[in-house]
Design a protein that fits this description.
The protein is built from 11 helices and 12 strands. The chain has about 290 residues and is an alpha/beta fold.
């Protein structure tokens, strides 16, 4: 917040400030805004919201699945004002919103609680329960995972060769050139995490190999495209990786993994089946070949 907004004390010092925002959901952002203005010397801060109170969870796209996360659902205007540190708080009444828009053909369920469709039973559960259920269902579909030597796991879907392999894991930030990276001899025995999310979209061209026999250890990507669009494409990335016995995994959180490698350095990683337990995977390392780095 401080990186985006920087109040000018000479302008705010000793002033009564009216802060206008589009909504209050959890109240965390509003609290930070008020705090910044207080530090800049504002005498009073009066917050005005150009929407009605956000009272009910939205099941149609907004990442709010429980009333527990909505500050206005449990607190009145004065209470919310106290919680965020403002001197006063005012919302736009729902009837005024209808009057201003001149129509009521839009969904206002998050304000009124009147949903356009029947809410699934799962939506009545707490956010934590829903998160666990979604993760379990997702894990039922995953068939591969990366197991790092510190025990952290990254689940996804396999492509290329399906063999189990242990390698050193590194990352590359190039937005293009995955074929050159795949065939670069410097990545021998290394699994490369591609920071750029979309990989495979222009296929593989025969003329673009860096070496005739790719020796990369593996490839980890966010999104894999198996239907390339390129007149030069002679094969898909998946086909070439199978040909040269290169395992791959997609669907993992590459941003998190890249940051982990950036902050703590490269490490050993096992590309294995999703059902492999951490204990079993760490034990299997003793039976798998790994090139010791100098």
């Amino acid at each position: 917040m401080r990186m985006k907004l920087s109040p000018i004390p000479s302008v705010i010092q000793g002033k009564r400030v009216v802060l206008i925002d589009d909504s209050i959901v959890r109240g965390t952002t509003s609290r930070q805004l008020v705090s910044l203005l207080r530090e800049a010397g504002a005498k009073e801060i009066h917050l005005r919201i150009s929407a009605p109170p956000f009272l009910h969870p939205c099941y149609y796209g907004t990442d709010i699945d429980s009333e527990e996360n909505l500050i206005a659902s449990h607190h009145g205007e004065k209470e919310v004002a106290t919680l965020i540190g403002a001197d006063s708080l005012g919302y736009l009444p729902l009837e005024c919103l209808h009057e201003l828009t001149g129509t009521h053909s839009y969904c206002d369920a998050c304000f009124s609680g009147k949903y356009a469709t029947e809410i699934p039973q799962m939506s009545e559960r707490t956010g934590f329960e829903q998160k666990i259920i979604r993760e379990v269902k997702q894990m039922e579909k995953w068939n591969k995972k990366l197991l790092l030597e510190d025990g952290s796991q990254f689940y996804g879907y396999g492509f290329g060769s399906q063999e189990e392999k242990i390698t050193e894991i590194v990352f590359n930030t190039a937005p293009v050139g995955y074929q050159e990276i795949l065939s670069d001899p410097s990545y021998t025995y290394q699994t490369v995490v591609m920071a750029y999310p979309l990989i495979g979209n222009y296929g593989i061209a025969k003329e673009d190999f860096e070496t005739k026999q790719p020796s990369i250890g593996g490839l980890a990507v966010r999104d894999y495209n198996d239907i390339p669009s390129n007149f030069r494409s002679a094969a898909t990335l998946d086909e070439v990786m199978k040909q040269y016995h290169i395992p791959g995994i997609y669907g993992i959180d590459t941003r998190k993994l890249v940051r982990k490698i950036r902050d703590f350095g490269s490490c050993k990683a096992l590309l294995t089946d999703a059902q492999t337990s951490p204990e079993e995977g760490l034990k299997n390392w003793q039976d798998l070949r790994f090139r010791k780095m100098p």
